[in-house]
Amino acid sequence: MSGESSRHGLPRPGRVTRPGRAEAAQLMAEASQRLRGGLVAGRTWRELAFLLGAVLLAPVGLAYGVLTVVVTAVLAITVVGLYVGGWMVVGARGWGRLYRGLARRLLDVEVEPPRPSPGGGASGGGSGRCSATRPAGERWRTSPPRSRSH
């Protein structure tokens, strides 16, 4: 066993080599430059704006979700209540559109929108409009975000 390292191969205390003042100053200058470059970069500010927007929208979205559950539970005893709850779920798709728009504009990330409702459409009549409130397969699932190619 040598006097330079312990039995685990680590340097013994007091034997750690430290950079000289010039090397330390150079390392600090490089770290400072990288930090300044990151803070000044536009992407940093866009990400911060996205986070701030998400934090400000989250309580409103939570309130909308709670209101949807409460209104649907209270009005479910009537036939009208089922339709009101369904339309509130359809209205919640707007929240997804809003967050996808934020991600697209601020983060340059494209998130695929959910597939359209089956059977719904302009000429679908009453049953087409009612089917828009029904869940349809994988529409509720999210897909992984893709970066937009410029």
From TrEMBL:
Keywords: Membrane, Transmembrane, Transmembrane helix. It comes from the Bacteria. Residues 110-150 are annotated as: Disordered. Residues 118-128 have a biased composition (Gly residues). Residues 50-141 form the Putative sensor domain. Pfam families: Sensor (PF13796). The chain crosses the membrane at residues 48-67, 73-95. This is Putative sensor domain-containing protein. It comes from Paraoerskovia sediminicola. The lineage of its organism: Bacteria, Bacillati, Actinomycetota, Actinomycetes, Micrococcales.
